[in-house]
UniProtKB/TrEMBL annotation, chain A:
<feature type="domain" description="YdbS-like PH">
    <location>
        <begin position="84"/>
        <end position="162"/>
    </location>
</feature>
<keyword id="KW-0472">Membrane</keyword>
<feature type="transmembrane region" description="Helical">
    <location>
        <begin position="59"/>
        <end position="79"/>
    </location>
</feature>
<protein>
    <recommendedName>
        <fullName>YdbS-like PH domain-containing protein</fullName>
    </recommendedName>
</protein>
<feature type="transmembrane region" description="Helical">
    <location>
        <begin position="34"/>
        <end position="53"/>
    </location>
</feature>
<keyword id="KW-0812">Transmembrane</keyword>
<keyword id="KW-1133">Transmembrane helix</keyword>
<dbReference type="Pfam" id="PF03703">
    <property type="entry name" value="bPH_2"/>
</dbReference>
<dbReference type="InterPro" id="IPR005182">
    <property type="entry name" value="YdbS-like_PH"/>
</dbReference>
UniProtKB/TrEMBL annotation, chain B:
<feature type="domain" description="YdbS-like PH">
    <location>
        <begin position="76"/>
        <end position="149"/>
    </location>
</feature>
<keyword id="KW-0812">Transmembrane</keyword>
<feature type="transmembrane region" description="Helical">
    <location>
        <begin position="48"/>
        <end position="67"/>
    </location>
</feature>
<feature type="transmembrane region" description="Helical">
    <location>
        <begin position="364"/>
        <end position="387"/>
    </location>
</feature>
<protein>
    <submittedName>
        <fullName>Putative membrane protein</fullName>
    </submittedName>
</protein>
<dbReference type="InterPro" id="IPR014529">
    <property type="entry name" value="UCP026631"/>
</dbReference>
<feature type="domain" description="YdbS-like PH">
    <location>
        <begin position="270"/>
        <end position="344"/>
    </location>
</feature>
<feature type="transmembrane region" description="Helical">
    <location>
        <begin position="393"/>
        <end position="412"/>
    </location>
</feature>
<dbReference type="InterPro" id="IPR005182">
    <property type="entry name" value="YdbS-like_PH"/>
</dbReference>
Amino acid sequence: MENFSNETIDTTQLPKFEEVEFTVLHADYWKVTLLNVFFFFLLAGAGLGVLLFLNRGLLVFAVGILAAYFIFLFLVLLLSRISYKKKGFAFRTHDVLFRHGIIATNTIVIPYNRIQHVALHEGLVSRYFGLAKIEVFTAGGSSSDLEVPGIAIDQAENIKQLLMGKIQKQL
Amino acid sequence: MVEQFNQPQRQSAVGIVILFFDTIQKWGRALWPVLLVYVVRFDDSNKVYIFSGIGVFLIVTAVVAYLKYLNFTFYLQDENEEFIISEGIFNKTKTIIQLDKIQQVDINQSLIQRFIGVYELNVDTAGSAKKEGRIKAISHPLALALKARLLADEKKTSILSDEQTIVQEKSVEKESIVKISFLSLLKVGITSNYVKTLGLILAFFTTLYEQSKSFIADADFDKEQFDAYVEQRSVISSIVFFFILMFALVLIINLARVVYKYFDYKVAKQNSSLLLSFGLLSTKNTIVKPEKVQIVTVTRNYFQKKMNILEIKIRQATSSDKENSKTVIEIPGCNETEKEAVFKLLFQKIPVKGIVLKPNYRKLVFSIFLSMLLPVVAFFAFAKYIQPLFYDYTYAVVLYLLFVGLIVYFGFQNNRLYINDDFIIKQSGAWDIDNRIIEPSKIQAITTSQLFWHKKANIGSIIIHTAGGNLTFQLGDFSTIKHYVNLWLYKVETSNDNWM
């Protein structure tokens, strides 16, 4: 009983999630994004080419289509770049944070004691660059799940190990 | 012999057949339009193409199925108590589930699986409806052994305690706390769900009209006579008549529905759980365990306030159990004292509205823009450039603006977030006013969000995720929101409250 104390907590002194330093994604992840965009537009371009070849009547609009194609490509690249720059993650003692968004800045925080399970995902292109994606699942449904892409595989393994350890400690 | 699962192992080899059919199903769904085109154009000249196409498709599927089989492994890691599934040919995924997070393991067998004598094993954790781990082909003894291993220690005790409570429940007296009278049900019937019932009636009449149209067209129907009959009655009186008829219909159907569904609604207390029973012809029984409750919603409109009734909706943690998922438990027609009795059982205390957060005026401006300005501009643009006849209906635009304006205004006025130490209450709605109540310990995750042009105004949004759904509050004072996010995180992270 003597050791028991129950002091008032100064809620203004609580650690602030908004002041956390975020780690940016691996530089190679930008290359992965670029390659994915590139493949997508290559396929779309091939599709357009076939369409124009089969339907010669559309050739009148060739310049317009080409312009739209490149404007679209430019926009996608621009937005991907902003999105890549904005993404960041942080692991604190008791929770994991992930920041993302293009026009909005969204920050999702998941306390470790609410994690249900964890998954490591390696996409084909990502694997070539030695990158993996960590997925953290809670009981709150898909809107409260968290995916951190662009982490070096060995680091991802470490993070996974850390998360699993944290979950266990809470029990 | 005790089966060991500590080495990564593949599924049953015959499981390739399952994976094969699975892949065919998946791809078939994506490719059937292509197939359809070929079948429609079927003639001798492209016969070769079709059959070779199908042949190639089947071979590729078989190879993919084989590769999927090779790349799918599962094992138990003993020292960390983890169940690990690796899958994927090019895109690899490794799912790691801690054993004591596993809620349920079920073993199923589909028709094809029965044919080749394998079983499917699904691993399910709390929350999301989807299965977290799925092994598609496993022999029965192995499945049983794995299930036993997955559900070792932790679960056994919980199952045991469940059985004990059932035994206890029989001996414990039920204590009735709420009994909803027939009068209250009548009140509920005439004050709620107008829009829903109106929609049902309209849908009913539209189908009826569609049916009768073809019937009338068939019969030898004298259209002129009908038109003359219609003209005899003045248009206005028929419109009034129509509205009164509609309103009466809505009320009658509402009453019948409410009475049928909720007749003899009783809430009793048993141990610490709520026992609900209701229904006219067949009585439904439901048990609500307070620790499973995630969000409680209290709904009331102006009439109901005057009549001293309200509706309580209880949302529990959704799990794979089809019975539980998506079911919202409703207690209609409570009065204030009954509400308090229910709340005492669910929360141990009466939720109090603490400090209030109001949305910024920009939220109002945005709603006005979205639901008033845009439609009106669209209307006049349509009238100007496409169909000038639309100008005749300008009075409808005025009515629309009045109606929607009221909804938008009251919706904004009622949009509030109340926070105190034990509860977070989100109030919303224009006519039916909802108060969604959650306890901070039920929080699973928190998302904050801010548009870059709102940084200067220091406003932003918050989404609180629970296992029973999300609570969203938009464009509130961002410093206050961030302050409370830190506080709630602190609360969740320092206590080990059971959220379900």
